[in-house]
Please model this.
Amino acid sequence: MPLQRFCMPLWISLCPSLLVCTFSFRVFRLLLHRLLRGVCTCHFSCSEVHKTGRCPKKEVRIVERTTVRLALPSKGRMAEDTLALLKDCQLSVRKLNPRQYIADISELKNVEVWFQRASDVVRKLRSGDVDMGIVGYDMVREYGKDDEDLIVIHDALGYGQCHLAIGVPSYGIFDNISSISQLAAMPQWTEDRPLRVVTGYTYLGQKFLQENGLKHVQILTADGALEAAPAMGTADAILDLVSSGTTLRENNLKEISGGSVLSSQGVFVANKRALLERKEVLDTAHELLERFEAHLTAESQFTVVANMRGSSPEEVAERILSHTNFPGLQGPTVSPVYTKTSGSVKVDYYAIIICVPKPKLYHAVRQLRKAGGSGVLVSPLTYIFDEETPRYRQMLDALKA
Model:
């Protein structure tokens, strides 16, 4: 017998006049729902309780949808850079109108894109309302609160680089303070007069300061313009994201040694349960990782082509491997260059192709010239697809752990 039918006589016996009262059917349903909540307060349906004879102790969200939900930041530089990354990976995010918070990706038929505040991206990943997301690592740590159901599957998307750090005034009682240990040893901080730290990172801030010996601390919350708080006298120090440090210096603040909580940039994060339980989520994560890895690996490299005299491909390859520091991904590609001289076709040159890290380009060109290379051509790379995406293998290993 369904639980609703079992509960109906009980409810009628408790309130015989209910059937003849003027309550609407909607009110009756609400009252019945409240009664049932007293019987079962978990996310399982009452039919599940009837079938098993008990209520599961742990609340588990049952996902019935087949679409994969990807959450992206809705505002700010992180949002712009995320959309740019997806575009570079040949993924077109389409909104029907700019005021909507849901979109799709034409290249990924089963994926819904949900635009959320950065903090809500993490919250909804934890709850299972979305399956994957792109957000700053600082947000994952602050709002994820070390939740084991969150798994970072790509930790370096290449934008939004910054670090979360303590900033103190460069004057007054902090004039000679240059480290976190010195800050903790200052006699000014007592139970009655704690160190006041203003931040938007209350979870990370409290944890970090306690771990570094600061026993008397008061965490104050704020969303913006933190740098003004010490000068106004409303706080002694700040804990905020730092990129170049210019804003700190312009407000007479300084970083201190050991005061960096974490380094952050854009990361690709997922709900661990969704990856384990739903194949469509795992497959989508695989494709996104392949696209991200292929683009980001290629973005840091140049293709370099040069002609080189030699008697054989092996002799030219030996020269490259012995006299340069840039053999390519697995080794140089060597191809014959055919020339026609006096009516006959012969091979005097070989074309070599290597990949070179962008910061090392001019050093590589000098080495190639010294080894006999000429006619050096340089071009950017768009994608480099490996035999297997390393981060996908890392993700699978993490899921097994």
